[in-house]
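Hello again,

I reread your note about wanting to compare the complex against the isolated chains. To keep things tidy I'm splitting this into two emails, and this first one only covers the full assembly. Below are the input lines as submitted, including protein chains and any nucleic acid or small-molecule components. They are followed by the predicted structure of everything together. The single-chain runs will come separately.
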Amino acid sequence: MRASARPWTNSANGSALLSGAMHELSVTESLLQVVLRHAGAGGAVRVVSVSVRIGALSDLVNEWMQRYFDYLSRGTIAEGARIRIERIPVTFRCDACGDHFPADPRSRETIRCPRCASEAMTLATGRECFVEGIEVV
Amino acid sequence: MAEVRLIEVRQEVLAENRQEAGDIRARLERHRVFMVNLMSSPGSGKTSLILKTVRALKDAYRIAVIEGDIDATVDAEKVAREGIPAVQIRTGGACHLDAPMIAAALGELDLAALDVIFVENVGNLVCPAEFDTGASRKVVILSVPEGDDKPLKYPLIFSVSDLLVVSKIDYLAGSDFDLEVLGQRAHRLNPGMQILPLSCRTGEGIDRWLGWLGAEIDAFRKRKG
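Full-complex prediction:
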């Protein structure tokens, strides 16, 4: 990606990117701060990779996070680090029988517990946005 | 060549924002100021609802409004015309309000002279869901013309909100918007979320909204009293 004060407009399709990718920009800024703080505290010379867990409910797009990270990390010890994103699937816990099961909340179909068919459930996973660890030298 | 080693981080990406939001919440509790974060798409009626609410409640409570907008002061001017303090945050392209922006806005308000703050977040169903602002309650507004499928497309915001306001119900007649289907879709993400249909134009449902606010403010004061 080329240097630009506003990377999100550095495209023929600038206005669409502005609305679509600003989200990743601010989350990635926070991610970089977390990474640099921990790398610095750990005496790292360079960050090789960053492992992140992101819930499937989040609209964060992997490619944009990497692009913004590449841009924002220039001149820091995290420059060139690869972001490894593990997507955490959405799972629910049945309020009636306690069964824990995966389901797609974007589905138009009614979601029912696969064990007892109840429609009362609580989101168990899928909202994560978590830095697991960093690989450094 | 140096060996690659692993540093365990195990920390929320937005931990810093969350911490600042926690500081804001504590500060507001000290001043006994109830803050509510209103989130929705552009054009769903956030400003109309705020104006309607301010007119109904400004004799009962000392109210201020924090307006988030990418680059305009139109909404803040409308609010200021009601004679209440309004702080405009121009996010300069950012698509949501975060805790540091709210902290800065609170610095321009006299908290000792306030009971309630309405935060009008940037019109967007994606980003505001991720960023805690320090508000006591989060409200998502969905207008009837947007369709009852929005919880399918933007599940996160429906999963984090305390209340879903369905606005512009005067458009329900002749539309295929199904309140019951919306309720099912929203409740599977967030079983405890209340749903309040209303129309700022006809006034239908406004009393229930004001009732919800009043009860929340009372509960907030009792908790911290």
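For quick reference: Helices of chain B lie at 15-30, 46-57, 74-80, 99-106, 150-153, 155-160, 179-189, 206-224.

B.
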